[in-house]
Amino acid sequence: MTKGANVGLADLSDDAGSVIASLSWSSTSGDGDADVSVLLLDGGGKVRSDSDFFYYNNPAAADGSVQLLGKTPTDGGSEDRISLDLTAVPAGVERIVVAASRYGGSRFGELDDLRMTVADRAGDVLLGFSIADAGVESAFIFGELYRRGTEWKYRAIGQGYETGLAGLATDFGIDVDDEGENDNEDRDEGRDNDRNASEGAVAGQAVEPPGAPAPPAPGEAAGPPAAQEPASVPRQPVREAGSPVSGAGGATETGITESGAGGTDPAAAPPRRTRGPRTAKKKVTLPAVVKKSLAENDAWNAARLFPAPTLKSDKEREVRATSVLLSVMAHVPEFGRRLTAAFGAPAGRMETFTEVSLPHGDTPKRPDGVIRVERAGKLWTALVETKTNGNALRSEQVQNYMDIAARRGYEAVITLSNDVALEGSPLVDVKTDGRRKHKVALRHLSWAEVAHQAHMLIRHEGVGNAAHAWLLQELLHYLQHENSGCHGFQNMGPSWVPVRNGIDTETLSQGDARAVEVVESWERLIRQVCLRLGGELGQRTLPVQRAQRGTTPQSRRAALADRLCEEGRLTAGLRVEDSPGVITIVADLRTGKLRTSVEIPAPEGAYPLTSAKRLMRQLADAPADLHVETLLDGRSGPRGTLERLRPEPGDMLPGDGSRITGFRLSLFKGMGLSRGNAESGFIRSVDDAVDRFHAHVIAHLPAADRRPARRSQDGAQEAAPAPAVAADAPVPA
Fold first, then answer.
1. What gap in Å lies between CA 170 and CA 344, rounded to an integer?
2. Average pLDDT of 223-234?
């Protein structure tokens, strides 16, 4: 689509009542990022209340109409997906605006391939809109969905704001407070609220913490009321407030004028004042430290809701794992919704079934499970096929379930295994009948992703009541049991040993298909490391993929495979939210060593010796074998171990007085050789290397300063103000 164009969704799909909107971008450096937001607007082009504003700290509407599904890695960047159930949008909402904002002085002109797509419930892309004229803007409206009678239409907007999220939010009726009062009074204990406290806030944003459940469905018992306790209200950060709104002109129907002010003057309304913290509904999380056991000795096994030690065959593991997972999904609404929203399921009453017999030709088929979700009299249904213990999905079996689903009007077939799906590399090949009016989506879940979502809810984001938290804890214990078979990616594949030997003997040639298979396995492993580490930390963790514009997943992996054949190294990057830099992992198959490292910039304006001494203080508890390398303009400088440099920080300074741009910190570890997940295996050694580096190095470094700079009246840059909570902010029920 072109800028300003519009189209009716019903003209593109017969099943457009629920859609997935995706915002994507790429960066040659692999570290570009932005935050998505969604605003529900009434007929006057304004939010009805601040609760109509959805962002990373208010990711879902209670009625299921909006849910932010989070980021997924793509080649060279990332993609944010948003589930929009248009049938559940309140009658008073006329428009749904989809936007994104950058932070810390970053601009959208620094990113490539800005694009918004809208897909139907089956995952088929209905439309796409690319933005090619981004420049100094720090916020962008990508597009909007709006009503015309009983129909929903999409309009490609591409409206930019130099004033960031503050200017965008003000245009649509959200009051912005950048006074900076109560700098230290309104800080909450959670990770997201710490980030808000350093970045400013949209006043009056009273929302449930991430993972808040939808209201109980009819006939479903509600959990006990959560205790109320004083806490600061989660708030959306304001990035780059204070400068005039600027942007490309938009259509008058969108309510955005040529100046980007939306018909209002942000300066005309004074910011709200602060009177103190508000009361937020407490969510239940479980402590990370296990309570002292009453057992006589450590050999006693605690009684478990889902026992795993007695499982003896793969069939038993598959049946037990399916039943356990589907049962918890049905009884913990937050968890069930988290796993199915990305597949187009509405927010409603969920029921799950196992070992269902369905007719198919001469012999009935028995999928491992069935998920049924009801909302407003409409039914969403999916078949589930499960594999455990590293067993591969079979194309013929999945094809049968796709045919059954299409014939019976089911919306999706969900495959669940230890494998991790990659773009451009399908786990199974199936054929779809294009003549069928009803479309069936084929989706995949990894057991690692299931464990990640359970970990995020019970350790960081919280669930509705203690019983739900306990159920998720029992599920997580089951998945982590060595006999469950649900351990995620755990095998580098049959090509691992031949490629490793070929590199050792220098007989591996470029273009070898086995090297491509190893690169794919390496990418799956890194994605699983991100899921595990992100769940433990409660922070977004994504792989960093550097690729040139226009490259396909297949061509990118082929190029990496050729580099593997030539250099004998596998390289990957991890971006942990708020970390000072990208964690780089290098597996050198020639030397048998793993290197984990991070590059941190030198403080601006500081004396070189002051920077070196400050780094030594920050790394006071880091391992003595940590390698520290000084980075100069375009080259490397002095280097040494922390043990040697601690007494003499001046040894880190270049002798010729060259400018220090930063420091590279590295840890080395022996690499496992076997392809499996054994104690001596390659996968386990990568996990251990990343864990050690983050716990002993990254955790001791200051978090990345994401506060935006703003301009003072004399044009000088100054730090963004601390947040404040509006006095008349609505209090959540």
1. 31
2. 36
